[in-house]
Amino acid sequence: MFQKILIANRGEIALRIICACKDLGIKTVAVYSEADRNSLHVRFADEAVCIGPAKSARSYLDIPSVMSAAEITNVNAIHPGYGFLSENADFAEVCAAHGVKFIGPSPNVTRMMGLKQKARAAMKEAGVPTLPGSIDVLHSAEEALEIANEIGYPVILKAAAGGGGRGMRVVHSAEELPTQLLQAQTEAGAAFSVPDIYVEKYIPNPRHIEFQLLADEHGDVEVLFERECSIQRRHQKLIEEAPSPVVTPELRAEMCERLKVAFKKIGYTNAGTVEFLMDPEGNLFFIEVNARIQVEHPVTEAITGVDLVKSQILIAAGARLSDFLIRPIQLNGHAIECRINAEHPETFAPSPGRITGLNLPGGIGVRVDTAVYTDGVIPPYYDSLVAKLICHGATREEAIDRSLRALDMFVVEGIYTSIPLQKRILADEDFRAARIDTNYIARKMPPKATAAKG
Ligand code: ADP
User: Fold this and answer.
1) Closest C-alpha residue for ligand 1 atom 21
2) In-domain check, residue 123
3) Whose CA is nearest to atom 14 of ligand 1?
4) 277, 284, 288, 441, best to mutate for ligand 1 pocket (most atoms within 8 Å of CB)
5) N or C: which end of the chain has fewer CB within 10 A?
């Protein structure tokens, strides 16, 4: 087992990884930017190294700085968390070259999953249903028109290297396709350094459903059921739940089996998420693989009792799934996560700043993953996540009621947060009846002129 792990991340996920390491008796090294000097991950790690200025390009994303910290502190492994370097195949290769284990899939698999059209081709080849679309990136407007004509409008143009809900454009007719393609390529080049665009069928009002898997380095794969993440704003998730209220036991069993076979075939290792869109007829279509731990992993932990971060570390250390998983995995109750962001609940404008007052809720069925504290600051340089509230109940209804109770007792003063919006959603009868899709917020909660603070 590893003696010491470096955590190449910040915020709640850095603390989450510290928890897993403490549970395993592994020492931890935090890295931090100058803006994060007073952060809790710095305080609770066994050692901490400052790796640069606030700007993430010069700290959390700077491979030489992170590797120097790893060398100075003599760690055996690096956990990248999510975001930052977590899906950077070059970083995984540099780790290997320095004899440091990267806690994630192999560089080759990470590279393939990072290029969405490549991941899509691999999934199709492995027997997973994908959306009709271009086989590779688009080379010309003529090619795009030909494919769009074949699959039918509307279509969606997506950046091969896209992420975070950015770099997507819906196209409704052949007339607008060439200009949209050109704009999409220019934007993708600027945002992701890769101008490549591919096209696929656009599904109006889909549900977002994703499957969690764990794969060891000995060819064994387990699928820990699904999460539904249809409550999104601007293609970014805001509320997630597990299991999905619309996935039947039969569909669940069939998908888990299919994905086990597919991921064995592609030689996937460590944790990963396979994302799908569900059309109104209930068909699932693959959209992408996230080759890392995800923000919403705790809802799966709540319903399965499996510590996913601990599992990642055990797998990276060479353990077999059969050494630590109790199988068959049991699905227990229902869990809901609210991502509490530092943002205006109605305009979604970021709201960084000092937290002047704070109460974190507790009580039965409530988990809060956060790195904030009273008088702490949400810096403007990174993502706007303040806390994740995860509530577990025997049924979906109980999980919703506990979430509402916890949100009522969740106090964050000094900045705007998404709490008021989340309360409205959880109390809404369509949400309670599970009549949700990815356009739910855009349709039901249009922006208002006034807003509550806290
Ligand atoms: P990212 O990597 O930026 O998160 P994804 O491919 O995972 O991009 O898609 C994010 C979200 O964008 C989905 O959850 C969905 O809301 C929307 N989306 C993506 N592809 C399609 C599609 N073909 N049809 C309809 N909506 C889509």
Assistant:
1) 202
2) no
3) 208
4) 277
5) N
Tokens, residue 250 = 């039969």
Q: pTM of the predicted model, to two decimals?
A: 0.96
CATH at residue 21? 3.40.50.20
- For the chain, give the longest Cα–Cα distance: 61
Q: Identify the domain boundary among 88, 103, 118.
A: 103
Which pLDDT score is estimated for 448? 62
> Which among 135, 189, 142 is positioned nearest to 167, based on CA atoms?
189
For residue 113, being part of any structural domain is answered with: no
What pLDDT was estimated at residue 161? 86
CATH number at residue 261: 3.30.470.20
The whole domain housing 369 covers 207-444
Mean pLDDT, the chain, rounded, equals 96
Q: Please say if the pLDDT value at position 449 is more than 80.
A: no
Domain count across the chain:
3
Q: Is residue 235 in contact with ligand 1, taking CB distance under 6 Å?
A: yes
Find how far residue 332's CA is from the centre of its chain: 22
With a 6 A CB cut-off, is 104 part of the ligand 1 pocket? no
The Å distance, Cα 27 to ligand 1 centre, comes to 38
Both 308 and 436 in a single domain? yes
Whether residue 46 is found in the same domain as residue 164? no
Q: What is the rounded distance in angstroms from the CA atom of residue 64 to the CA atom of residue 22?
A: 27
Choice from 166, 287, 288, 290 to test ligand 1 binding pocket (greatest atom count within 8 A of CB)? 287
- State the catalytic residues: 292
Q: Are residues 96 and 139 in the same domain?
A: no
162 lines ligand 1 (CB under 6 A): yes
C-alpha 261: how far from chain center? 23
Instruction: Give mean pLDDT, residues 378-382.
Output: 97
Residue 436 has a pLDDT of: 98
Do 43 and 161 lie in one domain? The reply is: no
Q: Which tens digit of pLDDT belongs to each residue from 195-212? A: 999 999 999 999 999 999
Q: Which residues contact 438 (CB under 8 A, 6 or more apart)?
A: 205, 206, 207, 208, 230, 232, 235, 277
Residue type present at position 123: M
Query: Hunting for tokens 């819906």 — which residue is that?
Result: 170
Q: Give distance in angstroms: CA of 360 to centre of ligand 1.
A: 32
Over residues 414-447, the pLDDT tens digits come to: 999 999 999 999 999 999 999 999 999 999 997 6
Question: Strands, DSSP E only, in 34-122?
Answer: 47-52, 77-79, 101-102
> What tens digit of pLDDT does each residue of 316-361 get?
999 999 999 999 999 999 999 999 999 998 899 999 999 999 999 9
Mean pLDDT of 24-53: 98
Same domain for 211 and 197?
no
Select from 337, 300, 126 the least CA-distant residue to 226. Answer: 300
Q: Which of 149, 182, 201 is the last residue before a domain boundary?
A: 201
